[in-house]
């Protein structure tokens, strides 16, 4: 028992030393160290995100956003931002990931709410949860028929952005956004009628 406990502590100290080394390299500007850390923690991070969003692909996408955010931190700010502490760094990664997952859930809920409001305004009624899922999936299928710009603009609109905010975000004019939304709605209406 003594040897197994001793061996466990040796392994834990070795892992902590490796993690601290990776953190130190990341703070010095070696972005590969961040990649090494993510490879080491990937399964735990994906599971953490999956437990919130319930979709493995979305969890991996959100994790990629965390990685991107960490890579975009200026080298001169890295150590200070994480208070020269690997534990703080690791906890921050999990916190950013959790917040992205919660944001994703809010956006999806907002999309569904806006979508359901639109169906009610068009006279379409949804009687139960199964029907709601069916309608939502049918709408997603209709959206695949849109052009890339139409899809981007409609997605931002469904997320609750105003036309001027969409224009700024996509670096296009307000009128382009307004016109694209009008044509997109007409196209979706035709697709929806065809679908049903």
Protein architecture, described:
- This protein is mostly helical and 196 residues long.
- It has helices spanning 2-27, 31-53, 56-71, 75-81, 86-121, 129-143, 148-158, 163-170, 174-195.
- Helix content is 84%, strand content 0%.
- It starts with a helix and ends with a helix.
Features:
196 residues; mainly alpha; 9 helices; 0% strand; elongated
User: How many beta-strand runs?
Assistant: 0
Kindly estimate the percentage of residues that lie in beta strands according to DSSP.
under 5%
In terms of structural class, how would the helical and strand content be classed? Answer: mainly alpha
Overall pLDDT:
81
| Helix content range | over 70%
Overall body shape = elongated
Distance N to C terminus? 68 Å
Query: Residue ranges: pLDDT <50 for 5 or more in a row?
Result: 6-12
Largest sheet: none
User: What value does the Rg take, in angstroms?
Assistant: 23 Å
């Amino acid at each position: 028992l003594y040897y197994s406990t001793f061996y466990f502590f040796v392994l834990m100290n070795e892992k902590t030393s490796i993690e601290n080394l990776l953190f130190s390299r990341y703070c010095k500007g070696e972005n590969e160290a961040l990649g090494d850390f993510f490879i080491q923690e990937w399964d735990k991070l994906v599971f953490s995100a999956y437990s919130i969003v319930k979709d493995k692909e979305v969890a991996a996408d959100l994790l990629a956003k965390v990685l991107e955010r960490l890579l975009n931190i200026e080298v001169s700010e890295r150590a200070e931002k994480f208070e020269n502490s690997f534990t703080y760094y690791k906890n921050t990664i999990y916190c950013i990931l959790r917040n992205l997952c919660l944001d994703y859930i809010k956006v999806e809920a907002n999309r569904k709410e806006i979508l359901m409001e639109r169906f009610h305004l068009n006279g379409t009624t949804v009687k139960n949860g199964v029907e709601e899922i069916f309608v939502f999936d049918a709408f997603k299928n209709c959206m695949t028929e849109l052009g890339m710009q139409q899809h981007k603009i409609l997605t931002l609109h469904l997320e609750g952005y105003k036309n001027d905010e969409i224009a700024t975000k996509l670096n296009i004019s307000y009128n382009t956004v307004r016109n694209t939304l009008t044509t997109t709605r007409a196209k979706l209406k035709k697709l929806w009628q065809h679908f049903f």
